[in-house]
Each structure stands twice: as C-alpha cells, then as structure tokens.
Amino acid sequence: MENKKLRIALAGNPNSGKTTLFNKLTGSNQFVGNWPGVTVEKKEGRLIVDKEVILTDLPGIYSLSPYTLEEVVARNYLIEEKPDAILNIVDATNLERNLYLTTQLTELGIPVVIALNMMDLVKKSGDSIHVKELSRQLGCRIVEISALKGDGVKEAATAAIEAAKNGKTIPQHSFSGPVEHALAHIEEVTVHNLPEERQRWYAIKLFERDEKVLEGLQITDEVKAHIENDIAAAEKELDDDAESIITNERYIYIGQMLKGIYKKKGTGQLTVSDKIDKIVTNRILALPIFVVVMFLVYALSMGTSIADGGVSIGTFLTDWTNDVLGGAWLTDGSRAILEGWGVAPWLVGLISDGIFAGVGAVLGFVPQMLVLFLMLCLLEDCGYMARIAFIMDRIFRRFGLSGKSFIPMLVATGCGIPGVMASRTIENERDRRMTVTTTTFMPCGAKMPIIGLIAGALFGGSTWVATSAYFIGVAAIVISGIMLKKTKMFAGDPAPFVMELPAYHLPAWGNVLRGTWERGWSFIKRAGTVIVISSIIIWFLTSFGTVNGRFGMVDDLYEDEEVVTDEYIAVVADRMGVPEDEVEPMDDSILARVAQPVSIVFKPLGFGDWKPTAATVTGLVAKEEVVANFGIMYAYDDQDGEEELEENGDQIWDRVSEDFDSFSGGHGKLAAYAFMIFNLLCAPCFAAMGAIKREMNSGKWTMFAIGYQCCFAWVIAFIVWQVGRLFAGGVNVIGLLLALVLLALIVWQLLKPYKEAQKLSVH
Ligand code: GDP
Ligand code: MG
Asked: For residue 606, which phi and psi values (nearest 5 degrees)?
C-alpha cells in the first residue's frame, strides 16, 4: 500500500476548545485566548499518536457561509485542499449552535468525526447527552472528550485517523420538500460531473446563491437562469428567501433532534455559571463590577506598593528593580567600573548613560508588567473577558456600534498590532475602519512603563492614576466610536454579532503562565533590541551638539570657559526660557535644539518643555522609548559631579518630577497627567501604524486614522490641563474658554441624535 501522509482538519466554533485540543494533539505551544477570532492564521502540527498525520487548525467559525474572513479561509481549505477527514470539535455545553456547523461539515463529502468537548462541564452540571443517538442521527462517529483535562483526546485522534483511512460520512438531514426538489434539479444541471459525495454541498450553496461558489464553478448564464427558476419556486412556496430557508430548516432540524438527546438536569435550574452571569452581566451592575475588577487588577499590579501600605506586589518589585537598574550599580556603578578600566570617556557615557540608563529605565517596569499581564490572562482564561465583550456589545449597540469592536480592544491590551489585526473579524468595512482607527487607544504593554512612571514616580503610586489610564483608553474608544458613527464616513447599521459565552471555569495555570510569559518576554526582547538601538541614538543626540559655534560632546565643551562665556549662558537661558543658573550642557544637545521648537505644540497641554517633547516624539519608535528617553535625559546632572555616585535610581524619577514642577509653573502632577494622556492616545508606534496601514489598505484612511488619534489626544490633554487648573490654580482664561468650547463640541457630537446620519447612509 502506498504510504501517503494523512491530513486531518480541526474545525469548530470559536471558543469550543480548538486551540486547547490542537495543543494536546500536537504538543505545539501557542497562546490560548477566550474570544473568537484570534486564530486567523493557519496552524499545523503532527499528531503525537501518529507523526505521519498532519493536523490543520482551521479558524474558529459558526458556519460555512462566505461572510467572514474566517469562514472563507476555512471553507476554501476544506473544498480546495480536501483533507482526508474533519475532526469537528463541538462544545457540548452549547450543542445547538455548534451543531449548526456540524450539519454543514457533514455535507462536504469528507469523513467527519466529532470530538464532543467540555464533557467535564456537562457531567458536572448533571445534564446528560444521548451520545449514541446523536451519532446515529448525524451519521458520524462521536468521541466524548475534555480537551482541558486531556480525557478522550487520544481516542478522538485515533478515530479521526481511522475515518481518514476508510471512513465515509453521509449527511442524514434532509430539507423540506420544495427545497429538496430544487436541490435535485440544481445537482443535475450543474454538478453531476463532480464526485458524488461532494455534489450535495455545491447544490445547497448554489441554492443559497453563494456568489463565491457561483464564480468558482463557472456556470453559464443559461444554466444560472435555469437554477434561478428552481430557487425562486422554492422561495415562493416557502415564502422566504433561499438563504433564510436553509438556515431556519437547519435550526429546526437541530432543535428537534436535541429534544430527545439533550436532557437538562431538572428544568429551569441555573448552573453556577448562569448564576454568576446573572450578577456579572446584569444591566445595572455589569459596568460597576467591571470598574471594580479593573481597579483591583491595577491596584495589585501598579498601585501603591505593599511597602507603602498598599497591596501592589508589582510596584514593590518595580521600586526595587528601579533602585537597582535605574541607578546605583547599572548607571553609576558601571561608569565607575568602566572608568577604572580606562575606557574612553565617550564610550563610558554611551554604555552607562545611554544603553544602561535607557534599557534599565524600561526593564525596571518588568515586574509591574508581569503582574498586570498575569491578571489579564487570568481574567481571559476563566471566561470573564468574554463577558466584557458581551457587556460592551450591549452598550455599543445602543449607539449603533458593533460589540465586535471590543474584541480587538481586548487583544490590544497586550500589543496594538495583533489588536489592529483582530479587527479583520469585523466584516462591515466601516465598522472595521473605525475599529482600526480607535483600537490603539488601549494602553498596550509598551505604554505600561509610561503609566508606571507617572502613577508611580509622580503620583506616589496612585492606583487611581493607573486605573484611569485603562478607562481613558476604553472611554476614548467608546467616545470616538459614537462621534465617528454620526459622521457620513461611518454611518450605517452595525453588523449583527452573536457572542456565545463560554462557561466559567477555573483557569488552566499552564495557559495563564504561558500567556503572561509570552507577553512579558516579547517586552524584554524589545528592550534588548529596539530600545538598545534607539537608546544609543538618543544618547548620541543628547550628548553631542554645537556649543557657541563648536561641535562636540556638550559636557566637555561646557567645561571650557572660553567657549561657555557668561554672555553665552545668558543666550541659552533666554532660548530655553530658564534662569541662567539652570542652564545645563544638554540644552545645547542636538535633541534639545530639535525638540525645543516642537515643544510649542505641547505648551497648551502643560508640558511644553523640550524633554517631554523629545520623549513623546521618540515614543513613535516604540512606546517604551518614552521612559527610556527620560532615563537617559535625567541619567545624571553634570553640575552635581561626584555626589551622583551616592545616589540611587529613585533619584532619576525624582528629577523628572521636579522638572515637571518647574516647567509647568508648579503644577507638575497635572502636567504629568496631561502628558500621560497625550502619550496614551496619540499615534501608536511605527510598527502599529504599519499594521493600521496594512488593515486599512489605503493611504488616505491611514492618514485619517493617525491624524484623528493625534488630534483627539491633543484635545483631551488640552481640556485636562486647562480645566484642571481651575482646581490646581493658575487658570489661563483664553485656554479655559477654548477648552470649554471643545468640550461642548464633543458633548454635542455625543448627544446629537443619530437619525441624521442614518438618513445619509441610505442610498
Ligand atoms: P478556541 O477558541 O476554540 O481555540 O478555544 P480555546 O482552546 O481557546 O478554549 C476556550 C476556553 O475553553 C479556554 O479557556 C479553555 O481553557 C476552555 N476549555 C477548552 N476545552 C475545555 C474542556 O474540555 N473543559 C473545560 N472546562 N474548559 C475547556
Ligand atoms: Mg483558539
């Protein structure tokens, strides 16, 4: 016998446990999430039980219709690549919806084996499923499994291999008379020359007027007209359109089948999961609970350190690493050692004040980040995040937005790039564009050090500041969504979004730890690559410059009293707008010279100094760079000379705090908060902008998205700074009035009725 490699496709609904089963069957490692649509790419692996068999993980889908990218990817694979068998994973706690896909899979002419998953939950709830009868009615073999616990997984693989070798699945379900009549005609005139077992699927798709199948079969106009007659006749008789007829009949069939097969333990009884959901997704309580949950997450990860009477272990560890990495031995210590070795001064500067100061500043926040990611992964894995999408859908829908927008947002809390890519699951182009435009408002992992720095160093470890960063991101998305939806560009009804809530379950620690580590590690890797390189560049730009007409290292030039005369100091003081005794060598650095004029843009936001300006702009390379940049710019202050060696890492952040106070006229905290808001909401890093460009697939729309983000960030930070000074003191009347006008415009756009735009969308 020939030794052909067998290919098995793993198909199933989103959240049915596909990834979990795939990992168990192939031993490959990937991230396991809880929301539908993350698995867009194709994954393959060799079965552990038989290395010769290749398993392909198809995207999670609800049906084989051509409406979402996932569906198209999955069905093209099934039809064109013709795997030897389909292993259909079915969530036993959601049989009705899951079997909708199953009925379609059995029509493809490919042997199907069902892995009936989540049987642990079914057994725990006391429900029972008559598996033998279900298997008979569907015409395929069923193996009961629990992918999570690994029960029955091997048997499912073996059954799929057997089916691939010599199995056959014949669809057991027939549609109503008029439909079957039409199907028979269609089969006869269009696909009778295809292999028999595949004819039925094509006939059904032609009946549904599936454009993609029509194109693929290259049917002549004459034949098309012929089958159109058949379809129209059935539609007339059943008084519905063809596609709805098929959908309805499938659901009716499944519903009737399940009556005798699925027995709930004592009707009307709520499972634990249902009981939790009654509270957690309650119309009134849902949002407050969400706020409390996220507050706890931020309190534990980035709030007040346990050393200062708070609960945050993350902050405690970050304080400690900042002391170590941010100063004492990394920056100053390494400088002392390198100088001791007789290393050239510029190289000492590059290594100690450039690379170590920049990378150290970023790495200092790793503990907070790991704790934050650990908790987000926990919420994700136990099923809570899926509820958030559900709750958000309810809120979004009221404003004509699709809840699907919230899934990319959840992904974006890790990194904006997969977040932007996850918007592919949104089929409606306008909704997708809007989601691509707004998703990166979420605080991603790389923005976390900015939050940690502002909340920790400038607000003394305030949990509210850190939590507010998260909700400012969410609010920015909701507000932008509502405002944009009322413009001509984005008007239109939201795509329907059916979200299935998986039952709550205890988190699988392996998944959670792996997810946390993967996100944390990618952060550390970036610190070791992108941040090292940009720190070197920033160090160069802050160390070199032209002082009184002479180019060189600014520190050295400032030692030369012939170059830096008293008159020259006065010139610099005037240019920088600081007192003469505050002039420092860095004021003449290339970075200061370039950033100083740009800082005008941020004057109305309270942080119009060259240092935060430079940090903000370099943040476009990578958001970690904002903090790395502060690390370098404040690494040491030459005027204090020797004393510096005694100081520790906290000192750097203290200097940042003092500097914010000095250039904002004593409102350092408010200015820092405006700075944080601007940096959270403005254009994301270049890599994420690239992702936006790819998903928009249009230069114009990319410009729109980036432009919108920057303007929105500026306006919100402006309002916060101007209105905030009502409370902090030092009001600027013109600024305040302008801020109030902008605020009023936003509120007006939010409250204005949606009708107008709807009219515009009707062509
Ligand atoms: P996918 O979207 O189909 O890839 O689903 P996942 O593999 O990500 O699983 C969704 C969620 O269901 C995860 O949190 C899994 O831990 C959980 N899960 C998967 N299989 C089982 C199972 O057999 N029993 C239980 N209780 N949970 C499961
Ligand atoms: Mg998955």
From this structure: 95, -10
Task: Decide if pLDDT at 265 tops 80.
Answer: no
CATH 1.10.287.1770 residue ranges for the chain: 177-263
Which CATH number does 6-166 carry?
3.40.50.300
Q: How many helices (H) and strands (E) does the chain have?
A: 37, 10
CA 159 to ligand 2 center in whole angstroms: 22
State which CATH number among 1.10.1610.10, 3.20.20.70, 3.30.300.90, 1.10.287.1770 fits the domain covering 177-263: 1.10.287.1770
Residue nearest to atom 17 of ligand 1 (CA): 17
Q: Are 675 and 681 in contact (CB under 8 A)?
A: no
Q: pTM above 0.70?
A: no
Determine which residue's CA is closest to atom 6 belonging to ligand 1. 17
Tell me which of 13, 32, 384, 411 to substitute to probe ligand 1's pocket, judged by most ligand atoms within 8 Å of the beta carbon: 32
CA 578 to ligand 2 center in whole angstroms: 56
Closest CA to 694 of 710, 682, 678, 705: 705
At residue 326 the predicted structure's pLDDT band, cuts being 50, 70 and 90, is low
Instruction: With beta carbons less than 8 A apart as the criterion, state whether 71 and 23 touch.
Output: no
pLDDT at 368: 86
Query: What spacing in Å lies between the alpha carbon of 62 and ligand 1's midpoint?
Result: 16
| Average pLDDT of the residues of the chain | 85
Ranges in the chain annotated CATH 3.40.50.300:
6-166
- Hey, is 399 helix, strand or coil? coil
Neighbour count for residue 377 (Cβ, 10 Å): 26
Separation of 381 CA from ligand 1 center, angstroms? Answer: 8
Q: Is the CB of 146 under 6 A from ligand 1?
A: yes
pLDDT digits (tens, 9 = 90+) for 613-633: 999 999 998 899 999 999 888
| Residues ≥6 apart with Cβ < 8 Å to 208 | 65, 242, 243, 246
Ligand 1: nearest atom to the Cα of 57: 4
Which percentage of the chain shows pLDDT scores above 90?
37
Instruction: Quick: pLDDT tens for 665-678.
Output: 889 999 999 999 99
CA of 486 to the centre of ligand 1 (A): 38
Which ligand is nearest the CA of 33, by number?
1
Q: How confident is the model over 478-505, as pLDDT tens digits?
A: 899 889 888 888 776 655 555 557 778 8
